[in-house]
Fold:
Amino acid sequence: MLKKILLPLLLACCFRTLAADCRPTHLQCEYLTDPLGIDAPAPRLSWEMDDPRSGARQTWYSLVVGTDSAQVMGGAGDAWQTGTIHGAVQLVVYKGTELHSFTKYYWRVVIGDSAGLASAPAMGSFEMGMMDRRNWRGGWISDGNDMTVKPAPYFRTEFAVGKRIVSARAYIAVAGLYELTINGRRVGDHLLDPMYTRFDRRLLYVTYDVTADVQEGRNCLGVLLGNGWYNHQSTAVWHFDKAPWRNRPAFCMDLRLTYADGSVETVTTGKNWKTALSPVVFNSIYTGEHYDARKELPGWNTVGFIDTAWKEVVWRSAPAETIVAQAMAPIRAAVVLHAKTFTRISDTDYVYDMGRNIAGVSSIAIAGEAGTVVRMVHGERLSADGHVDQSNINVHYRPTDDSDPFQTDIYVLGKADGVQRFQPRFGYKGFQYVEVFLSRPAVLTPASVEASFLHSDVAAAGSVASGNRTLDKIWEATNNSYLSNLFGYPTDCPQREKNGWTGDAAIASETGLYNFDGITVYEKWLADHRDEQQPNGVLPSIIPTDGWGYEWGNGPDWTSTIAIIPWNLYLFYGDTTALSRCYDNIRRYVEHIDEGYPTGLTTWGLGDWIPVKTKTPVELTSTCYYYADVMILAKAAELFGRTADRQRYLALAEKIRAAFTAKYWHPSLGIYDEGSQTQLSVALYWGIVPDSIRAKAAAALARRVAADGYHLDVGLLGTKAILDALSENGYAGTAYRLAAQETYPSWGWWIVNGATTLYENWPIDAKSDISMNHIMFGQIGAWLYKGLGGIRPDPAEPGFRHVIVEPHFVAGLDHFEARHRGPYGLIGCAWRREKKRVRVEVVIPANSSATIVLPGRRMEVGAGIYRWELAAALVH
Ligand code: BGC
Structure:
């Protein structure tokens, strides 16, 4: 055995001297670290090159994939051996022998440094999941109750293990939400699993390694099912209570046990399971959860519990044909907050201020009499009398009675003594304040209530720090709102709607990608798009949807997500997968607009939503989005070698541009339409402005902003465009004055008034549309990296293989730094004014290169750390 491992290693070492400074790191499969339960027949493998040397680049790589870890480490793989492949590629699509379900594969990568010397090997793994629905053994089961029944169902079964287990995997597919336990212990740390999809078209299953949870002898599996978006019992304007998929939650599970003797046994869902109603007497992802601790069934999920009073389960048909692996960042509790202030209004009424606005849940620890009812009301603000005020967020809720209060959990104490704890499992809320009402007096302390910030647990990918505290706080607030709106799909707000509004997500995607490694969430959400697209190309304005949104709000200004997000993924990750999966969908979408609007101008859309004051014709903004989609399609066609498509869409783009210019450009005035901030900046940002008039339009925009006193006069579409439109056309200083503005209307105005998240409206006291946790004005989070740090991906060598770094040393700011971790590693740009100089430092990671543009010079560089001192005279 030892020989088997050592020999290839020794041989490798003899042929090439090892490059001590170079090693592959950050090995990922499908953008996850050592994932389990992968369904992709040809998974993507990627790594980073860690090599601190200047100019470091990868000259070759060699991959080995196989099922025997020792052999793979030694350089021999039974699934794939690429041999030495020359080049800098760090993202490879698997092309070995067919991968088998339930099989764990190890992969080893060795890379060559600039001189061709081999690195030490690095190893990762991935394990295939079901791959094919025919591999499921269990049946879909439910408790047989009607979808209107409120209490959540428990399910349990026991099974015996007579042999030593070497590996155990739980595969669980759920229509609804679940909590899985083995022998009374909760499995995994995911919350609100599985992610929301169009349940009647595509469901996600989750895989867990439960080897340590299953014991020899008897075992008990326990499952609690929640409603989630599958069985929406609350009533609101979008009618999710009438969703075509709606039903009582159901699930299917296979527990696959591999024994030491090589045999495999699967414990499945079927008639061997029993069911009973749980103490979760009501649960709604939209409004709250009600839990009656008096109904607890101690020991229900452990061996030996007497379940004779429990009912038989019933078989159910699978809710969807397609059941695929949930290969993405799960929702987790990222941060736990403690009360910043605590007010005792009376001995039955307490108010907690958690210090910042979040999406998530609160929990309570309380001692009190059995039967005491605890109502926990959540909101983003307080009314003048100090109570939680929900008037800004409950406007679209349509309750039919008072049994399901908005953003409120209801907990009934079950024991006479001791501290009891409650935290809801199947919902979340948007809140900063929690008001606790008790039906009988009890003593609460500041520590009695905690809050957990929940969101898709995507890794941080960027950071910003500057000499302007307001700017830094805007960046933090943008990230808070971005994460508060990331729950397996991007949402508009975590309280009032929780809807996957396409427009908001299109705007936030660049901000998201500079700051977080969110590709897995976006790829999943693009699959949701493909599920929802009509054959004629039309997409709904919210995704996923019960059917709402095909009639309203779904023009190109919102649903261009189908083109913009795949393109952004291509720019940020250098990966064409999303673009190629969505290619036909983008094409059908564009063709649909062309059929309906043969002149090239389209009036389809909502326009510049929630503007400060100036309104912009919908046709102006929607046509720019239409143009952008067509250009993305033409570029994608070029990438995929579809020459005829490329020509067709370039010609279509020209038609749109010509019609747009003819109608909106006033040559004598040098403006589009009336020359407002949105009108000029949307045209500039989306590239419809011909080069010949670009400088004129940008100058007009800068003049307009100055005339507006460096205050915003934009809505949602204008905010997306304005800062970049300025800084990319020579007016970074103007963009900065706008971005750092602290008086109304501006981002800074929110911050100086205490905001920790972004709002939905510019006036803080707006009478409507004033959610306090919206991401739709969040492009500023991307602009900081670009407009001040100057870090941009290069479409010609995407994924930051080649980086453009063009920082702007704007007047009024004495230092700024931005770091972004791209597929090649950490990119950084920092600058600082010191006396009469500006010091600049740029970091370019191994195996990539950059064009660095500083005042008066332009340099092509490889990996490394670069420093300059520029005379201040040059930079003003
Ligand atoms: C949402 C938005 C969304 C808009 C569409 C609102 O209710 O919260 O953010 O984009 O509707 O008009």
User: Anything to note?
Assistant: The mean pLDDT is 96. The chain has 17 helices and 44 strands. The pocket of beta-D-glucopyranose is lined by residues 492-493, 497, 501, 503-504, 553, 606, 609, 774, 776 (CB under 6 Å). The CA atoms of residues 188 and 657 lie 52 Å apart.
